[in-house]
Amino acid sequence: MVLNIIHIHALIELWKITKQKPIEIQIKRRKLNSIGHTLRKEAGAAEKTALHWNPQGYRRRGRPKRTWRRTINDEIRIMGRS
Fold first, then answer.
1. Is 0.70 surpassed by the pTM of this model?
2. In whole angstroms, what is the distance from residue 64 CA to residue 45 CA?
3. Strand positions, DSSP E, the chain
4. Which of 33, 50, 59, 81: disulfide with 63, CB 3.0–4.6 Å?
5. Region class of 62: left (phi > 0), else alpha (psi between -120 and 50), else beta
6. Which residues, at least 6 apart from 18, have a Cβ–Cβ distance to it below 8 Å?
7. How far is the C-alpha of 69 from the C-alpha of 41, rounded, in Å?
8. Cβ distance 38 to 30 under 8 Å?
């Protein structure tokens, strides 16, 4: 470790020792679990309604143009799952 910078090789070795997956994989798995639970809810559930809600108007300056739903759809498409 030089200048408090951990090298990727050290991280990979640490993941092997602790038997954990990289944080990116854990985050994607949790996102997919969350979206799966939401999609299985009843038709009138607030979470499911919010997932398909499309606000009208424009975004203020500094707001992201990509929504969470679009990000999830892109990740699913990249993984080759429907």
1. no
2. 26
3. none
4. 59
5. left
6. none
7. 16
8. no
The two three-digit tokens of residue 74, written as one number: 């892109």
* 10, two tokens: 């050290």
25-63 core/surface letters (b: 16 or more CB in 10 A; e: else): eeebeeeeeebeeeeeeeeeeeeeeebeeeeeeeeeeee
Collapsed DSSP state (helix, strand, coil) of residue 25 = helix
- What would the pLDDT profile of 9-67 be if each residue is shown by its tens digit? 787 888 888 888 888 888 888 888 888 888 888 988 888 888 777 777 787 888 777 77
Task: Pick the closest to residue 21 from 31, 11, 9 (CA basis).
Answer: 11
Residues in the chain: 82
Rounded CA gap, 53 and 33, in Å? 20
> For the chain, how long is the longest CA-to-CA vector?
54
Identify the three-state secondary structure at position 77.
helix
CA-to-CA distance for 70 and 74, rounded, in angstroms? 6
Per-residue tokens: 52: 């398909």
